[in-house]
Design brief:
alpha+beta, 2 domains, 7 strands, Heat Shock Protein 90, two-stranded antiparallel ribbon
Length: 321
């Protein structure tokens, strides 16, 4: 549906511009005729002359505005084409690298005897490759489902702390980093932190648990992935006074340039060149985060982690009763 929608407006705008140019040409011919006749009967043709002149000026302005809009749509289409090209390159790399690794390990196991210790290493490496493929498929499926449906905020409520705990544990397990690399702190509605009772109860947000988990799983996973080999990720959640829940995911990675902090939430966008990039990914993670948070009537922003280097992702979601 995306290609059809992107082509519909340029085609319609092109037809309108062609019609406007034809009408403008006919109008100027009529104006010229009226001007020639006006020299003989100036009083009778003055109103007609000014009417045609006004229509011509309006059509000229319409053509200029249409050209500007057409140029903007063309630039948007070019940018989308570039992002799709990056997406194809990244998906191809994400598929080929683990498949080549699995093929190499399986060929080694079948062609010659392998010591038990080395077999255990091979099995561990192959499991990581399978998990990498599984993550890629999950991202593609999540993106397809997110585009096809609309979330209904307010119909479900989700506890934030268990979701964040699972997201942190999954990232630690996937990248094999020490558990203390990801620190989680949840401040309840009343007074309290993670592991201690809060007087106001746990933090709850409006939205399906599956949607909320996709958001924070991608944010924590990105924070750890781009902070390797020594990540120091801080995840905090707290209640805001205006009926919102704020979750901050701070990492110690290279950071995102200010000019790119809004673009990273677009589909297929990844910083740098696919041919020079060493970090796996498809450019869909932050797009999913932004799309789902928007459906849940929240907001997500990317900030710098001052005074140290890194990125802070802030997510605000409506608090559930």
């Amino acid at each position: 549906m995306e290609p059809r929608r992107s082509l519909r407006w340029p085609i319609l705008l092109g037809v309108v511009l062609i019609g406007s140019i034809l009408a403008l040409g006919v109008g100027w011919v009529l104006v010229s005729i009226a001007a020639a006749l006006g020299s003989k009967n100036r009083n009778e043709n003055a109103a007609f002359y000014w009417a045609i002149l006004g229509v011509g000026v309006a059509l000229l302005v319409l053509v200029l505005v249409g050209v500007i809009i057409y140029l903007a749509l063309t630039l948007k289409a070019i940018a989308l084409s570039q992002r799709q090209s990056n997406f194809i390159d990244s998906v191809t790399h994400e598929l080929k690298s683990p498949l080549a690794s699995l093929k190499l390990y399986l060929q080694t196991l079948t062609r010659r005897p392998v010591p038990p210790e080395q077999q255990a290493d091979f099995h561990r490496f192959m499991l990581k490759d399978v998990e990498r493929l599984d993550t890629l498929i999950d991202h593609l499926l999540d993106a397809a489902k997110t585009l096809q449906r609309r979330a209904r905020p307010g119909t479900d409520a989700t506890d934030v702390e268990p979701v964040l705990e699972r997201a942190c544990e999954a990232a630690v397990h996937r990248y094999g980093v020490p558990p203390e690399s990801v620190r989680l702190e949840v401040v309840g509605v009343g007074v309290g932190v993670a592991g201690a009772p809060a007087s106001g109860g746990p933090l709850r947000v409006c939205g399906r648990e599956a949607d909320v988990e996709i958001v924070f799983r991608n944010l924590v996973d990105n924070a750890v992935k781009y902070s390797l080999p020594a990540p120091a990720v801080e995840v905090t959640a707290s209640a805001l006074p205006r009926g919102k829940v704020l979750v901050r995911v701070a990492d110690n990675g290279p950071g995102i340039p200010i000019a790119e902090r809004q673009n990273v939430f677009q589909r297929f966008v990844r910083l740098g060149s696919e041919l020079e990039r060493s970090t796996p990914g498809t450019g869909l993670g932050l797009f999913l985060v932004h799309a789902i948070v928007k459906q849940l009537r929240g907001r997500v922003v990317a900030k710098g982690r001052l005074p140290q280097k890194g990125t802070v992702m802030e997510v605000e979601l409506p608090a559930a009763p």
